[in-house]
């Protein structure tokens, strides 16, 4: 999660359709995992850690993000969340990296650092933005280095010493409209290039509920089979 998006949405972050839908997709990928210790890399506000704690996926959580101004410990519904700037030798049973790898030059090295001490029965869950042809001012604003295909993120996972369990595209229902908008914008701005600007917006409550419902339908139908197209890729991996 990017701290810049937290600044845009403020207190509406936890109710925003994008984070609600992405969190539910995350939970569906981890439906068989329960009671583990969690390391949430690039955690920002810790929204996904809180969702995992509420669902019983993890019993405690460590959020690591170099953007934190101070390190602290909080309690969420009786469970501990620790916020730290760095972790030297992480050894949690579940590592979550939600929209992190696209921010660094050495994505393989970063993934290996946070997974090399993973227990034999541990898990790594990754999400990244999909398809380089969707590159826009949104990526520039968030300081992305790249976007991925399913095959590319699987290759990164493999080179980091992990085995892919499954990977799927998400936000597939929104893909045609989003692709058309971004390709049209790229055509219009091909001479000067896109301006750094986030696509994330606060939306009216009715539209917010409608978008959550749409993604609920996708999650129950297309998501489990979608190896073709979407705006985001989820990848679940284990140690080799």
Model description:
- The protein has helices at residues 3-9, 17-29, 47-54, 107-115, 137-141, 150-159, 175-188, 205-220, and strands spanning 36-41, 58-64, 72-76, 79-84, 94-98, 123-129, 162-170, 232-239.
- It has a single domain (3-239), classed as Rossmann fold (3-Layer(aba) Sandwich).
- The protein is built from 8 helices and 8 strands; from the N terminus they run H-H-E-H-E-E-E-E-H-E-H-H-E-H-H-E.
- 34% of the residues lie in helices and 22% in strands.
- The protein has 240 residues and is an alpha/beta fold.
- Helix 3 links the parallel strand 1 (36-41) and strand 2 (58-64).
- The longest helix has 16 residues, at 205-220.
Summarize the structure.
The chain is of the alpha/beta class. The chain contains 8 helices and 8 strands; from the N terminus they run ααβαββββαβααβααβ. It has an 8-stranded mixed sheet, with helices on both faces.
Largest beta-sheet characterization: 8 strands, mixed
Mean pLDDT level: 91
- What count of helical segments does DSSP give? 8
Number of structurally distinct domains: 1
Q: What is the CA-atom radius of gyration, in angstroms? A: 17 Å
Any idea what the shape is?
A: globular
Q: Record the strand order, biggest sheet.
A: 3-4-2-1-5-6-8-7
Percentage of residues assigned to helices: 25-40%
- Beta-strand residue fraction: 15-25%
Terminal CA distance: 27 Å
Give the second-level CATH assignment, the architecture: 3-Layer(aba) Sandwich
Low-pLDDT segments: none
The H-and-E topology, N to C, reads as HHEHEEEEHEHHEHHE
CATH class: Alpha Beta
Q: How many beta-strand segments?
A: 8
The CATH superfamily appears as Vaccinia Virus protein VP39
The CATH topology assignment is: Rossmann fold
SS-derived structural category: alpha/beta
């Amino acid at each position: 999660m990017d701290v810049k998006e937290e600044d845009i949405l403020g207190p509406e972050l936890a109710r925003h359709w994008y984070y609600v839908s992405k969190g539910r997709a995350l939970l569906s990928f981890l439906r068989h995992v329960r009671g583990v210790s969690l390391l949430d890399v690039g955690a920002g506000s810790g929204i996904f850690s809180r969702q995992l704690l509420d669902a019983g996926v993890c019993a405690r959580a460590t959020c690591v993000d170099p953007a934190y101004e101070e390190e602290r410990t909080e309690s969420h519904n009786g469970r501990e969340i620790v916020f730290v700037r760095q972790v030297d030798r992480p050894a949690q049973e579940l590592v979550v990296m939600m929209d992190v790898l696209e921010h660094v030059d050495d994505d393989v090295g970063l993934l290996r650092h946070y997974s090399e001490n993973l227990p034999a029965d541990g898990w790594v869950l990754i999400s990244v933005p999909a398809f380089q042809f969707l590159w826009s001012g949104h990526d520039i604003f968030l300081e992305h280095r790249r976007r991925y295909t399913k095959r590319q993120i699987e290759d990164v996972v493999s080179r980091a010493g992990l085995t892919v369990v499954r990977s799927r595209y998400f936000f597939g229902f929104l893909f045609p409209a989003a692709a058309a908008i971004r390709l049209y914008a790229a055509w219009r701005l091909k001479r000067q290039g896109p301006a750094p600007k986030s696509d994330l917006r606060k939306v009216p409550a009715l539209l917010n509920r409608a978008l959550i419902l749409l993604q609920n339908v996708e999650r129950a139908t297309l998501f489990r089979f979608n190896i073709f197209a979407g705006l985001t890729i989820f990848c679940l991996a284990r140690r080799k």
